[in-house]
Design goal:
Blueprint: E1 3-10, E2 13-20, H1 25-31, E3 51-54, E4 57-60, E5 73-75, H2 88-95, H3 105-118, H4 124-130, H5 142-157
Parallel strand pairs: 1-5
Antiparallel strand pairs: 1-2, 3-4, 3-5
Length: about 160
């Protein structure tokens, strides 16, 4: 099996790695780049645990080949905070107890950030629709929705 060299930008940093041509971006991010916030929940694009942004578009990294990321911009949960300062979404997830086991949390955070970048004042229905590709088996969704609403409100103040 031949390999590919991928040159990309991840969370604003230029990154280059080699991988097999059939390796998913999920596996490369975790195993080659060391970004373990990206989680594998299902491997079929049904749970959202591996959600990232690719050129600003929310995608399941388990469905993208690493070679497809060449020359593109990737955003992961590790890029949400600004150094030691948590993003309002991260703060509100903690305040609203919107996480338990943590497997789904990175995907929810990436999806919520993507939603709020497109729509800074979403209704509850729009939040639920924007997060519909992410599954949580522990918390239910009310705390997650409330955390996103609170973060949106705080972000609009800035």
């Amino acid at each position: 099996m031949s390999g590919v060299l991928v040159s990309t930008t991840i969370n604003g940093d230029a990154v280059e790695f080699a991988c097999p041509q059939n390796e998913t971006l999920l596996n490369s991010l975790r195993d080659r780049v060391g970004l373990t916030g990206v989680k594998e929940g299902c491997g079929t694009g049904d749970c959202g645990a591996c959600s990232i942004t690719l050129d600003g578009r929310l995608v399941c990294s388990c469905l993208v080949l690493s070679a497809e990321a060449n020359g593109r911009e990737i955003g992961t949960v590790e890029g949400i905070a600004q150094g030691d300062k948590l993003h309002p979404l991260q703060e509100k997830f903690i305040e609203h107890a919107a996480l338990q086991c943590g497997i789904c949390t990175p995907g929810f955070l990436v999806a919520a950030k993507s939603l709020l970048e497109r729509n800074p004042n979403p209704s509850e229905e729009e939040i639920r629709y924007g997060l519909a590709g992410n599954l949580c088996r522990c918390t239910g969704y009310d705390k997650i929705v409330r955390a996103v609403q609170a973060a949106a409100k705080e972000m609009r103040k800035k």
